[in-house]
Amino acid sequence: MGRPRTPLLDRERITTTALELIDEKGEFSVPQMARRLGVQTGSVYHHVDGRGGVVELVRERVCAAIDSAAFDVEPWDAAMTAWARSYRAAFAAHPRAIPLLMTSPVRAPKVLEHYERAVRLLLGVGFAMAEVMTVITALENLVLGSALDLAAPETMWELPDDTTTPRLAEALAAVGTGRADAAFELALGAFIGHARALLDAKEA
Hints:
This protein folds into two domains: 48 residues, Arc Repressor Mutant, subunit A; 137 residues, Tetracycline Repressor, domain 2. Helix 7 crosses helix 8. The chain has 204 residues and is an all-alpha fold. The model has no long low-confidence stretch (mean pLDDT 92). 69% of the residues lie in helices and 0% in strands.
């Protein structure tokens, strides 16, 4: 028999299968992946550095949707705003991956490059070295929390009737659709405004 035109197993197929399992179940295991791929578990390990290696492949795949050109936007606060919106959209597409990716160290070189650019941007406009990772981490917390919120039902409050919590009922009726987007833009604007004020205080 001739060799198959498409390799039975490669890193792309491994990544796709792992992300499919995560999107479905919120988790994955190498044996689960192997079964879905129709190969032996040991065959997967020929292509990746254990389960952690698969996690990093998934991280690279999800983060590939983040627009790195956002860092070329001027001024710096517009760049960070654009990055945050793109970051949120990338992770909102795979919300079940968030707990997995955010509780394991970042090792993927392409993802680390995003952080390097963010650090250089903030240092370049005057943030102190000791402040930079605090700013980036705070922004990530906002983005990832909002990505999870975006994946949640539009209405997260189910009232038995309008009489026991009438003002809440009115507020829910008034917010309309797009609550998650509006909340994200409010929080992002407040965050960028505070970061801008910190920088302005240094220059005063």
